[in-house]
Amino acid sequence: MEKAVILIADDNPTNLKLAGDILEFEGYPVLRAQNATEVRKIIAEKQPALILMDIQMPGMDGLTLTRLIKGDPANAGIRIAAMTAFAMKGDEEKAVAAGCDGYITKPIDTRLFPGQVAQLLGAGE
Hints:
Layout: E1 6-9, H1 13-25, E2 30-33, H2 36-46, E3 50-54, H3 62-70, E4 79-84, H4 91-97, E5 102-105, H5 113-122
Parallel strand pairs: 1-2, 1-3, 3-4, 4-5
């Protein structure tokens, strides 16, 4: 079975590499973006099954971008998980309110991360 394509959106190259390496090791095709412009360009071309969205990005933040993506019927099938180091009380609710399907705190737990991603994808398949 083909593994779902995952887009990781994070302006931190270290976070981008770590998450991408873990998912590629698990057999997922991974796309990477460092800002909202790159995310929108990739979505227009590739339609990933899941976007792991950093909330704090320069320019347009992840929640605003999530609202835009989810607001477009062409992107209705894309699942989005917020990824943030700012895990404050109420943040998960804000992410869900913006349209996120899940929430992953950073730094990611490398042992739990593949299961978290599989669970997010499983909910959509």
